[in-house]
Amino acid sequence: MNFPVLKGAGYVLVNTPDMIIQNGSTCQTERVVNPDSEFLKEVGKHIRSFDEVVKYLPNQVYIGNIAPQELENYEMPFTNHSYEEGKADGKMGKIVKQDVFIALLQMSDAFDLVKLSEEFVNEIKPVIEEEYPILEPYFGHLKGSDISNAQELFDTHMAEALYHDGKVCGYIKAAHDIDVNLSAHTMFENLVVKASGVLAAVELVTKNDINRDDIDYVIECSEEACGDVNQRGGGNFAKSIAEVVGLQNATGSDTRGFCAAPIHSLIEASALVKSGVYKNVMIVAGGSTAKLGMNAKDHVKKGFPVLEDVVGGFAILISENDGVHPVLRTDIVGRHTVKTGSSPQAVISSLVSQSLEENGLKITDVDKFSVEMQNPDITKPAGAGNVPEANYKMIAALAVKQGDLDRKELANFIKEKGLVGWAPTQGHIPSGIPYAGHAIKDLTEGDYNRVMFVGKGSLFLGRMTNLFDGVSIVMERNDGKMEDESSVSSESEKDQIKKVIAESMRKLAENLLAE
């Protein structure tokens, strides 16, 4: 049986120091409810420089310069270490500066909503032209304007300010006078999703030498929604990203499922390729400004830098089996159903063990589990603990309960089968996919044979249901055995023979009736 393969991955982290304070939900809320708070006075002192962001170990893992397994060699918190060899350009992605990203916001704008000062554009345009030749068709979108009326627009909530180095360098206008779905704030968030998705897709195609014309479908799986008063989340981020990146032969759609959406999308893309509907499906997700500095109060209080200082994005490509890249086992898919329940054991069993058992496998047959790969540097000071480790403990406990693992091997299981978290807390971004690029290497050049991606989602946040959600899928080393053309031809010939026989029988029946 031919399974689809994971052919490549691309990642982006956009360092947005000004957006933390101006656009992150924590700082925005604080300005409304407690404008004179000590937190607002102190938070600016805890913002890292771009160089510090680049040399931060988890960020280097995210863009592929360090293998995630290497994090085990460093004591936490990772803020105590500076990876001096760190570079902004990685093997699988890139760390992008805020001014470059602001320029990309305007280049991604299809309705002339983004206005940038002439001074800002004159400084950044040569950088864009040098770093992103792939986006040359959109260089013309980058143009300066007179923004002297900015304050009036801010005061009337008809524009959202764009800051760089503490100064207003432009703004994003509302797309409608009264429709809250097209407000300046919403358009700002949605353009951030689109632009960061564009950057991630660019990293995918450039770092993996992918022919853009070969991509025929795109699935976008972030947590924002675009639409207007009559269809609040109608979409379509996927096709808008494909347009800017130059995927001329692609169509696409958006998939939503909170933090589980990336793995839902991975399963959907794999099914589309496996069925033959599409040959190459790109999954892409932009990041969230609302989550910038989300836990900043706790970080500031405990003397940490504000670690949620990047907008994350990723893009991966699912393609037909090439005999080389790891295969996605569409027959080993775990899912949390309506009847599963919310107990930890029921959740982990539905996502991890049931699909394995159905295929004659045990939990211990999986070399690595990629779960919610949140960076513990971010979550522990905020009281959320070490999220990946908590997941691995539950998986290990289930393995013990099922008799697959001796209780005294619990600690070793977590180390051998788990990974130290490194992804920014951008909601959907940590959900399994940060390991995808590394997994390609581990399953081709390394000694792993099988990994599992697990995504979980908190549906109660949408106030539509209290149900939990989650899905999983297994990816394996490619054994190089592909369905050969002769067997396909043979099956085709069999179909033709069946049709001939059926037609002959029909004619025979007609003749008998005529007699």
From TrEMBL:
Keyword line: Oxidoreductase
GO molecular function list: acyltransferase activity; glycine reductase activity
One Pfam family named in its UniProt record: DUF5940
Boundaries of every DUF5940 domain copy: 346-514
Enzyme class: oxidoreductase
EC number: 1.21.4.2
The protein, known as: Glycine/sarcosine/betaine reductase complex component C subunit beta
Keyword DNA-binding: no
